[in-house]
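Weekly structure sync, notes
Attendees: PL (lead), two postdocs, one rotation student
Agenda item 3: pending single-chain targets
PL asked that the sequence for the first pending target be pasted directly into the notes so everyone works from the same version. It is reproduced below exactly as submitted, 226 residues in total.
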Amino acid sequence: MPSPRSSPSRRAASVPSPSRRAAPVPSPSCAAVALRSLLAADLRFSRQLGVCAGERSAWGSARPLLRLLEVSGHGVPWLAGTLYGLGRSESPAGREVLLNLLFALVLDLVLVAVVKGLVRRRRPTHNKMDMFVTISVDKYSFPSGHATRAAMVCRFVLHHLVLAIPLRVLVVLWAIIVGISRVMLGRHNVTDVAFGFIMGYMQYNVVKYFWLSPLSAPALFAVWNQ
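Predicted structure, written out during the meeting:
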């Protein structure tokens, strides 16, 4: 006996409508794949370098020394020292340099806070939150504020202070070691510090372009000259 032919309505019901078909999943672009691979390598490499992240880490005994370096690159000592120097300086040229250093430090704090607030990259999971004087945006990792400050201060000092060659070398080494210590302490990933160095280097160009002088900011200098 021949099988009954299915009705047109049944045949239509058996065919999925275009609206019910699953949308094709777009394949990730080469740039997206490369970025994910880079971030994964960054996290893995940074964790391997975090040898002072805790007292029980591979180099945990060196952690107190690296925390001293952390304080040396922090914004609070630099701001306090610059303000103290401005109050004690009796040289117009010295006050000009210190006032622009203060401008550079404040600019650094603002720019780093803005970028951290926009990117919102969390700190490494192996970081121990015992940092020196933190604020709300310091829970974010990108970029490293210590790295930006170290690079900017290094360029500033080398351009505006007359130092012997050994001291100039020490300034450069200090900036580099401060950045490396951020990864060793587990505070930052490698890319946080690398971008921080680049950002700090460029920040000095902004300070140089908007250099404050008695001619460009007479009212500001009048306050400090009183």
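Discussion points:
- The CA atoms of residues 8 and 14 lie 10 Å apart.
- The chain has nine helices and no strands.
Action: rotation student to compare against the earlier draft before next sync.
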